[in-house]
Amino acid sequence: MKALKLEEFYKLHSKFYDFTRQFFLFDRQKAVDFLDVKPNDKVIDLACGTGLNIPLLLKRTTPAKIIGIDYSRSMLAIARRKYPGVRFIEGDVSAYEFHEKVDKIICTYSLSMIDEWEKAISNAIQALKEGGTLVVLDFHPWRGIFKVFYPFFKWWLGKHGVYPEKQITSLLRNHFRDVEEKVLHSGYSFIVVAKHPLS
Quick one: average pLDDT of 120-133? Predict the structure, then answer.
């Protein structure tokens, strides 16, 4: 979804985002667990939205160690109200230049909405320290007995600017030494854990 259109979309959705997304954006806790944040780790929440990952990260580190970045001013306004101690940046994750290296980066249900998702991943890699970890949680093509319903779900996602068939894992395997994909809920979503970016 184009950046300006994205802001228009979230200007409306920000009003009820936190309530509604719990019903279909699952497994944030699992993604944070795979990120394995240590108390001194600096963490970027890439395309952080209203900050739904932040309370999970705060169980593992302090607000000063967390950076959230998102294009949507409306979503960030909510995140800033909820977590005043966290640093939030209004910026395009596919273009923003981070001026510091971090240990861990998480990106949940966002790359499937970003047109220049490859650039967003490249940007994330540039911000990671040697030996750092990137965890992505996003939609996945359905498998098993539910596969017959996938075309309708894919159509519904597309109506909202979400495209679940981007080759995220393949791209990460080109840029990290250790990449593991975990498909969840018969393909509804997946988590990719990418460790040790290649120089």
Answer: 96
Tokens of 45: 């929440």
**Mean pLDDT throughout 136-158?**
93
Q: 134-162 burial by CB neighbour count: b if 16+ within 10 A, else e?
A: bbbbbbbebeeeeeeebeebbeebeeeeb
**Which of 76, 185, 198, 86 shows the shortest CA–CA distance to 138?**
185
148: Cα separation from own chain's centroid? 27
- The string of DSSP letters for 37-49 reads --TT--EEEET-T
Q: Which two tokens stand for residue 95?
A: 């273009």
125 CB neighbour count, 10 Å cutoff? 17
Domains along the chain with CATH numbers: 3-197 (3.40.50.150)
Separation of alpha carbons 89 and 72, rounded Å: 10
| 146 — pLDDT class (breaks 50, 70, 90) | confident
Q: pLDDT (tens digit, 9 = 90+) per residue, 52-97?
A: 999 999 999 999 999 999 999 999 999 999 999 999 999 999 999 9
Q: Which bin fits 88, alpha (ψ -120 to 50), beta or left (φ > 0)?
A: beta
